[in-house]
């Protein structure tokens, strides 16, 4: 093989790799958007019922909507952690979210609550801990919104856990989307 042919094959391989990563980044944005809409899907498919938490939808009539959508969200984290090897924390967050799906809050409250707390708390830690100094203030605001929503639920009774979780999912999805666009690190 001549040097020109080797260079051509190498350039083609790099181009295909870049195109694949670009498609994956677009897929991440779509999946993050789906994560943002999970609570709306649950309400829609549960005939407009707003339950106390997202986890409370595990036994709705069309429970496949609960299981499928949260499994997609868990896979978003798992795949991100595997594909972007430097982000092992996303693999852990994906496993925690899978724990929320696999262990319902009624039959397995301890495992479920540890998984849910680890998922939401872990996302908050990741957002701030793994950010550059110039972005830390923005990510700290995002985490503060999650903390305020959880405090509003657990300490002040302003909102139910459902709304606190939805806000948290929204912030996590926004973080994912901004990161995949390269707006934030």
Provide a compact summary of the structure.
With 185 residues, the protein is an all-alpha fold. The model has no long low-confidence stretch (mean pLDDT 85).
Task: Describe what you observe in this structure.
With 185 residues, the protein is mainly alpha-helical. It has one domain. The chain is 77% helix and 0% strand. It has 6 helices and no strands. The model has no long low-confidence stretch (mean pLDDT 85).
**Overall form:** globular
Summed over residues and divided by their number, the pLDDT gives a mean of: 85
Major beta-sheet overview: none
Instruction: Indicate the percent of residues in helices.
Output: over 70%
Secondary structure tally: strands: 0
Class based on secondary structure composition and strand pairing? mainly alpha
Through-space gap between termini: 41 Å
**Compute the gyration radius: what is it?**
19 Å
Beta-strand content? under 5%
Whole-number count of domains: 1
Number of helices: 6
Identify low-pLDDT runs.
none
Helix-strand pattern: HHHHHH
